[in-house]
Amino acid sequence: RLWLVTEQEVIIEEAQVSDAAALSNLLEQVSQETDFIVADSILSQEDMAIFLERHLAAVNEICHVVRVGRELAGVFNVSSSDSPQTNHIGDIFIAIRKKYWGYGLGSLLMEVALDWACHTPMIRRLELTVQARNSRAVHLYEKFGFKIEATKERGAKTKDGEFLDVYSMSRLID
């Protein structure tokens, strides 16, 4: 898919194993640019390659990257489980480089994620967690039909140790 952002070509495509290093770098940069993302640890290039291989082989998981020009600008990922009891649930993660905030890339990624989920026979529920103070992300998810199911008080902490509430949000896929 192609769109224009700041007069540069925008491409959203499934992440390949060859994207492992760039994707690890993207996540490292985004985790430094904002504390809206709580990252336990960023996968190494080798672990990211294994992660991407697994996603490419799975029916109920996907990872897409968005490129602006030649630069990796963002990612969305849907992870699931192998368990027959929960393999219909996809957990969404989205991250976009700060310099690309406000261009609608989050909406584009959500459209692609929902299109994929609707055409994947296994996924019937999407879930995500988002910091309650991240009003732009909460608004984006609500715009795409996600509902707040619960608030986890002290569900995360900032780098400075401040407690944060986190929303659990979901959307059914029918």
Give an overview of the whole structure:
The protein is an alpha+beta fold and 174 residues long. It is 29% helix and 36% strand. It has an 8-stranded mixed beta sheet, sandwiched between helices. Helix 1 packs across helix 2.
Task: Compile the SSE list and pairings.
Layout: E1 2-5, E2 8-14, H1 20-33, H2 45-57, E3 62-68, E4 71-79, E5 89-96, H3 105-118, E6 125-131, H4 135-143, E7 147-157, E8 163-172
Parallel strand pairs: 5-6
Antiparallel strand pairs: 1-2, 2-3, 3-4, 4-5, 6-8, 7-8
Helix pairs in contact: 1-2
The total count of strands amounts to 8
What is the alpha-carbon Rg in Å? 16 Å
The SSE string, one letter per element, is: EEHHEEEHEHEE
- Amino- and carboxy-terminal Cα gap: 24 Å
- Whole-number mean pLDDT: 90
Sketch the major β-sheet. Answer: 8 strands, mixed
Number of helices: 4
Structural class: alpha+beta
- Roughly what fraction of the amino acids lie in strands? 35-45%
Spatial strand arrangement across the major sheet: 1-2-3-4-5-6-8-7
Low-confidence stretches: none
Shape: globular
> Which bin fits the share of residues in helices?
25-40%
Summarize the structure.
By secondary structure, the protein is of the alpha+beta class.
Task: Summarize this structure as a short list of keywords or feature phrases.
174 residues, alpha+beta, eight-stranded mixed sheet, 36% strand
